[in-house]
């Protein structure tokens, strides 16, 4: 069970004894920052993640409301609480309109009331933060969906239109030799493969974005063998030498579906983007795993990725080369899957010199 994070509170007041008594009273419950300087308070806000800001209304340099109004644009996340020893209706109205104050506390303050105010303010802070994160996720999903629909409609129709065009050419061809028939069939096969690749990547995208996380023990040797076998009949696979080194010490718990998506895409890309004229094609798969974490490296000596394209390879629908039938979804899905497993992925590549994907994935807690 994860413990509740300690709330960080910044208190600004021109009276030093108020600051010291406040810190003494609440230092065990919260992380307390105190200052009598508005400038220092702003510096603290820049350096620290402050959830609650408390300020005294009556200060010689600046009022609490003015301070809240000043920090509102650059430090809008902290929830604001105003302390005042005066009954001042105008200050209350100003604080609501300008400083967006969550609550007022009268001097001398009541210990339990202040603690309750801080706890309630933190609930507001946390809710707002979660809402911002959800909005950001929704905005990302909306932008991706818009791009996905546009690109998917093009990439689904393109191979179908190619097949239709080839069929029309075949109808017009009166010279039906074996060679001509084989040419037409080869063209149709290429278009169908492109369509199949795109559909498979769409399925991976759906699985990764919509499915929950199911944790179980992962056998990397079995997983890699199954993926390698699935490429057995793909043209060109027989020309590639596989170098597989797997060191697994004990059980590693993670999501096998997401790991399969990651490995299937990376090994498939290493196979797909080999140099056609290279007589020594290879794919090197290195996995080291224990109960804490796993590191995975997929290396090839294929066509590589240009330096200017490296920073874009994980973007949806980005294609760095026209070779083969890439959909531009695969590496995007890989990146998303790695991050859903709280892992990290890195790519290094040299044009015409091969590519290496390096992944670190921490173990997940065992279900049940």
- Supply the number of structural domains: 3
Kindly report the spatial arrangement of strands forming the biggest sheet. Answer: 2-1-3-4-5
How far is the N terminus from the C terminus?
A: 14 Å
CATH topology title of the largest domain: Heat Shock Protein 90
State the fourth-level CATH superfamily of the largest domain.
Histidine kinase-like ATPase, C-terminal domain
Helicity level: 40-55%
Strand/helix succession: EHEHEHEHEHHEHEEHEEHEE
Number of H- or I-type helical stretches: 9
Determine the mean pLDDT: 83
Counting DSSP E segments of at least 2 residues, the number of strands comes to 12
How is this structure best described in words?
The protein has 368 residues and is of the alpha/beta class. The chain folds into three domains: 8-109, Response regulator (Rossmann fold); 137-210, Signal transduction histidine kinase, dimerisation/phosphotransfer (DHp) domain (Helix Hairpins), CATH 1.10.287.130; 213-368, Histidine kinase-like ATPase, C-terminal domain (Heat Shock Protein 90), CATH 3.30.565.10. The protein is 47% helix and 19% strand. It contains nine helices and twelve strands. A five-stranded parallel β-sheet has the order 2-1-3-4-5, sandwiched between helices. The chain has a five-stranded mixed β-sheet with strand order 7-9-10-12-11, covered by helices on one side. Strands 6-8 form a two-stranded antiparallel sheet. The longest helix has 62 residues, at 111-172. It is elongated and about 100 Å long. The relative contact order is 0.08. The mean pLDDT is 83.
Topology:
Blueprint (H helix, E strand, L loop, with lengths): L7 E5 L3 H11 L4 E5 L2 H10 L4 E5 L7 H8 L7 E6 L4 H11 L1 E6 L4 H62 L5 H33 L5 E2 L2 H11 L10 E8 L4 E2 L1 H17 L9 E8 L3 E8 L29 H11 L3 E7 L3 E9 L6
Parallel strand pairs: 1-2, 1-3, 3-4, 4-5, 7-9
Antiparallel strand pairs: 6-8, 9-10, 10-12, 11-12
Helix pairs in contact: 3-4, 5-6, 6-9, 7-8, 8-9
